[in-house]
């Protein structure tokens, strides 16, 4: 079963990368690993650095894919993004979090899906 | 980029100018508000971002810091939504700065970008007027929700721009649309003043009580009405505002300020014209009565400033609630001290209270029998403490009507309008007398003024001496007899207090007699 989930996820990320390229994003990292977890895709959208979380669901019966990016996931992403920015010394760039939700054949890109809130870093 | 927008807030019942600074910098997208914001102010970020997005502007994707200066006063209320939104859009170069410096912005945002009314507009307008008059800044006017515009326009001295939504504000600031400043039609508002739906002529009989209330209204004296259930105490009290003179401009400003802070000014309404009449239920807590809270808000005594505070069923109020009334009754102000802050609210009200003569209510009734024991009656009356009773100048018995008095079609008694004319005349005499003393009515006379203005002839003195001995009047009660006598003399247009005036005034101390 775990294997099946990974396949779905992997497929989703490939689909996502393609979709983003079509929409003018320049992908710089895929599956960027940190000790907190993994960022699916990091890309440039014009001059903004975008951290993209890809969510794929085989069908919508469990609810929409985007609802899986909850507060805990947001906090994790923010921590990883922070780490990445430090690592690359991207001090004067703009950053943003997007969520790419894939349900069946329907792809939805949510730009600026969330902002960093108080409580993310403690 | 950095931007600065003027806004304002309230502290107690006074407004002050707040500078909203917005900085948008590179970094992970976030939004933080600093400068001692309370819950409602912190929450404004979600309203602001939605409103910006839904008004058709780009929503910011960068690190936003909002600072509210001065940073050492706790900011409360939702009026900062609009200045924060405009500040963000300015920092994103979507608003031209040249007009922005000239306005104070205030308003609550709905998620769709439309503006909602906020409370406390009048004190804020006063604070802005101060700024305009001092000419220390370029401020010329206020931009606020349309529903608040008429309240702000009452002062008629700066540009009041009433707006419906965020888009309209931005277009106005960018010079793309012009909005005509709101101004108040003074004539129209004056006409609304004189309509009451109650009138004294509706009260059957009770001529004695009406006379006493006329005296109370003329001199601003506190009243205690004692009577059987259904005898008309409440009816009489509710009609008291109809015989009081209208608020003058300064009084109206003070009273409206308090009501504005408490959020009681309906959209589209301006200055209060009639005197407030507040009648809290007897379960009221003492904080609700005199004001309070961690950041104190005015209570009922302040809401009835320059008007009437009516306490029905006086002995049913908690004892400590009645005792906290003493200081505001004496000083006409109330000072609320809390760990964080200490505030003084005006509380110059006329206390009108009503009670039954005994627990069952029928003591002294012409037809029904009272079933209470003497002890019970004594206990009931003793709930009103001596010090409080002393501060009530006029005690009044309102007996139940006999059955034939009720049924008989009596000729209609005097209308409120006639009584009010006499009251206004008496108040004019008092205003002239207290020209230099900063008080308006006889009831507020200090001992020195009482001595000066209430001279008695020898016969009156003799009568008063007897009364003190028989009724056991305290020194304060003695003073209040003099004050009431002064008012009675003013009502009849006499220069000096005469024996008949003293006699009538003594007649209004019936509870002293009962306790003795």
Q: How does the SSE layout of this entry go?
A:
The complex is a heterodimer of chains A (122) and B (516).
Chain A: H1 2-22, E1 25-34, E2 37-45, E3 48-57, H2 71-88, E4 94-103, E5 106-110
Parallel strand pairs in A: 3-4
Antiparallel strand pairs in A: 1-2, 2-3, 4-5
Chain B: E1 2-11, E2 14-25, E3 30-34, H1 39-54, E4 63-69, H2 81-91, H3 97-100, E5 103-105, E6 108-109, E7 115-116, H4 121-134, E8 141-145, H5 149-153, E9 159-163, H6 166-173, H7 186-192, H8 207-219, E10 223-227, H9 233-238, H10 249-261, E11 277-278, H11 286-290, E12 291-292, E13 297-298, H12 300-303, E14 308-311, H13 319-323, H14 326-331, E15 333-337, E16 342-346, E17 350-355, H15 374-382, H16 386-390, E18 394-398, H17 403-407, H18 416-433, H19 447-453, H20 458-471, H21 475-491, H22 499-507, H23 510-515
Parallel strand pairs in B: 3-4, 5-8, 8-9, 10-17, 10-18, 11-14, 14-17
Antiparallel strand pairs in B: 1-2, 2-4, 6-7, 12-13, 15-16
What descriptive keywords fit this protein?
heterodimer; A: 122 residues; alpha+beta; Trna Endonuclease, Chain: A, domain 1; 2 helices; globular; B: 516 residues; Rossmann fold; Helicase, Ruva Protein, domain 3; 3 domains; five-stranded parallel β-sheet; 17% strand; elongated
């Amino acid at each position: 079963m775990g294997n099946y989930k990974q396949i779905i996820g992997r497929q989703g990320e490939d689909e996502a990368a393609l979709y983003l390229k079509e929409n003018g994003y320049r992908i710089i990292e895929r599956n960027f690993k940190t000790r907190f977890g993994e960022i699916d895709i990091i890309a440039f959208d014009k001059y903004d650095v975008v951290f993209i979380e890809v969510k794929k669901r085989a069908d919508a019966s469990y609810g929409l894919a985007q609802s899986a990016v909850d507060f805990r996931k947001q906090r994790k992403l923010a921590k990883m993004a922070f780490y990445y920015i430090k690592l690359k010394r991207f001090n004067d760039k703009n950053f943003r979090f997007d969520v790419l939700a894939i349900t069946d054949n329907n792809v939805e890109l949510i730009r600026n899906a969330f902002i960093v809130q108080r409580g993310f870093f403690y | 980029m950095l931007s600065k927008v003027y806004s304002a807030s309230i502290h107690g019942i006074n407004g002050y100018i707040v500078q909203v600074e917005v900085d948008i910098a590179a970094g992970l997208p976030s939004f933080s508000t600093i400068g001692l914001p309370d819950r409602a102010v912190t929450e404004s970020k979600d309203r602001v971002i939605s409103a910006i997005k839904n008004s058709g502007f780009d929503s910011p994707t960068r690190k936003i810091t909002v600072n509210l200066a001065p940073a050492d006063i706790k900011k409360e209320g939702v009026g900062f939504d609009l200045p924060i939104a405009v500040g963000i859009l300015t920092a994103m170069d979507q608003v031209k700065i040249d007009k922005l410096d000239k306005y104070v912005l205030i308003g609550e945002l709905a998620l769709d970008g439309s503006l909602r009314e906020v409370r406390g507009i009048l004190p804020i307008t006063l604070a802005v007027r101060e700024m305009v008059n001092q000419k220390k800044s370029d401020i010329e006017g206020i931009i606020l929700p349309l529903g608040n515009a008429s309240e702000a326009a009452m002062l008629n001295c700066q540009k009041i721009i009433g707006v419906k939504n965020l888009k309209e504000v931005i277009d106005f600031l960018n010079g793309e649309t012009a909005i005509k400043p709101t101004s108040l039609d003074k004539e129209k508002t004056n006409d609304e003043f004189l309509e009451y739906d109650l009138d004294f002529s509706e009260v059957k009989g009770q001529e004695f009580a009406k006379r006493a209330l006329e005296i109370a209204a003329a001199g601003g004296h506190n009243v205690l009405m004692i009577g059987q259930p259904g005898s008309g105490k409440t009816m009489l009290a509710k009609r008291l505002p109809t015989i009081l003179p209208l608020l003058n401009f300064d009084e109206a400003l003070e009273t409206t300020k308090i009501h504005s802070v408490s959020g009681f000014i309906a959209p589209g309404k301006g200055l209060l014209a009639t005197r407030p009449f507040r009648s809290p239920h007897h379960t009221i807590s003492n904080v609700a009565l005199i004001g309070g809270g961690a950041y104190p808000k005015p209570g009922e005594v302040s809401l009835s400033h320059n008007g009437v505070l009516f306490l029905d069923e006086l002995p049913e109020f908690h004892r400590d609630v009645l005792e906290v009334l003493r200081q505001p009754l004496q000083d006409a102000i109330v000072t609320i001290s809390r760990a964080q802050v200490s505030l003084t609210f005006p509380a110059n009200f006329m206390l009108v209270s009503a009670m039954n003569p005994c627990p069952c209510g029928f003591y002294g009734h012409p037809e029904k029998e009272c079933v209470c024991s003497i002890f019970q009656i004594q206990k009931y009356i003793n709930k009103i403490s001596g010090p409080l009773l002393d501060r009530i100048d006029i005690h009044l018995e309102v007996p139940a009507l006999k059955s034939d008095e009720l049924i008989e079609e009596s000729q209609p008694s005097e209308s409120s309008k006639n009584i009010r004319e006499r009251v206004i005349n008496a108040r004019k005499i008092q205003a002239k007398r207290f020209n230099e003393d900063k008080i308006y009515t006889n009831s507020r006379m200090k001992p020195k003024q009482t001595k000066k203005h209430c001279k008695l002839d020898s016969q009156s003195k003799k009568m008063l001496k007897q009364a003190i001995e028989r009724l056991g009047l305290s020194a304060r009660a003695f003073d209040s007899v003099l004050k009431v006598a002064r008012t009675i003399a003013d009502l009849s247009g006499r220069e000096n207090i005469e024996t008949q005036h003293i006699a009538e005034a003594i007649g209004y101390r019936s509870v002293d007699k009962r306790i003795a």
